[in-house]
Amino acid sequence: MQLKIVTPAGRRKYLELLRHYVLGSPEVAEWQLWDNCRNEEDRAYLHALAASDPRCRLKQLPGADGGWGVIGEFFRFCDDPDALYLRLDDDIVFLEPGFFPKFIARANEERGKALWFSPLVINNAICTWLLKFFSRVLIDGPVTCQAMCPYSWAYPALPEALHPVFIEAVRNRRLDDFRVADHEVRLSRFSINAYGFFGADRVSLGERFIAPDGNEEEWLSAVLPAMVGRPGRIFGGLIAAHFSFYTQERDLLLTDILEDYYRLAGLAPPARERPRARSAWRRLLAREKMRGRVPPPRYRVGLREGADPVAAPGSPAT
Prior knowledge:
Layout: E1 2-9, H1 12-22, E2 28-35, H2 40-50, E3 56-59, E4 83-88, E5 92-95, H3 99-110, E6 116-122, H4 125-134, E7 137-140, H5 157-171, E8 183-185, E9 194-198, H6 199-205, H7 216-228, E10 232-242, H8 249-253, H9 257-264, H10 280-291, E11 300-303
Helix pairs in contact: 5-9
């Protein structure tokens, strides 16, 4: 069995970091780069990246211009029944040491039980909920167990507070503070920032694997698992970090968080153009239009000292 990574790409400022993790791992047999670029500069970089390593495969579809509606169609390229596939967002900015062999081992353990697998993802709303209640991470602020949480997903405040604490924890060898027990996901949407599945399942399900309405995240994380009677599974002891959702990206790019993730990987941060900060008035208008007058949340994040948090009832140990 081969591990094949697939990535809807691509934004150069993130991909230069992700390539460090993906192409630096001998366990990765193939990296499919799904050309969903928003501009020609990123597309030129993506072509250069694809030519830089024989394991890279550039995949293109007509009409792919950075939107979400076409991403589900790219799963047609996941047609190897002997492969384990892992879809990684192009802005995955951290994978823990030994991530890929650990992921392969855990997926093989759960094969035939769960339809899809995810690590615990830093800056993923449902994973944030798990962190708040079942880890050694203290999160003071509103968090709901929804993929599109009106607080932790809809605003940049949570990742602005969480990312620096996570980065410092990795530097101080406290990554274990973020681990939780495994959890199943049933009848619930899950943000598929890191979404693993077996090629044999993709092939056997055929057209059923492809979202009929273009909403691949809702289909792959919630609808299809319910149809086939196999849930998703979060590997709570395996950790990745996701930079931002579109609701958060502009604000996070005004910080040095991305550069700190490059330094955490031992890489020199690339030069990049930072977005202009919106005026307070424009920021307020945009957020009220998008979120319907939900007040902006505030967060304080830290690490718990002393006794371990209580494990979820019935959850296996990690």
